[in-house]
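Annex B. Sample input.
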Amino acid sequence: MHTVELGGRSIPVGKIVCIGRNYAEHIKELGNKTPDKPVIFMKPATAIVASGGTIIIPAYSNDCHHEIELAVLIGKEARGVTPEEALAHVAGYAVALDLTLRDVQNVQKEKGLPWEIAKAFDTSCPLSAFVPAAEVADPQSLQLRLVVNGQVRQDGNTRDMMRTTAQLIAAVSAYFTLEEGDVLLTGTPAGVGRICSGDRLEAAIEQVGTLTVTVA
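Annex B, continued. Sample output.
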């Protein structure tokens, strides 16, 4: 059973729902088309690695990329909720990294195949402890910053999301039920890049916290 921390409590994690292409500048840097609906994929709870842990890049990839994201912890069941109702279902927020095997993902996309082997491998979701939702004044006004080996790689703000946190929760809940303990990743700003063995990643989101991991 994989758990996350919220206010000193351990919460069992169900599924991790991820959103792709939610920041315009990130879409541009990868040369992707702007989607008319949220791009949704999943990671299993086995993808989680806590702050202080180690990322293990699978042997079948030579191009693993970092993506800093605001993570949302669902606190009560959300099914078919409206954006106006959505934030009432949030228990907390955390700092996350969505690690992507870009070379593997590109091959999968070319073949029209799912992305999971590029996105859902063990340690592909470094995740900080969660802070209670009440401690975050506005999830759409948070600075995200990722530093790799002392150099700033990503520096963005959640105000630049194409779809807000509330809109994402509502959209996902229209397809399937979000349950207590589920985690939602909300997309990454521009600046993604490759990580290699020995790298140290330090991620921070204001009002939310920090996350530090190294690459094996």
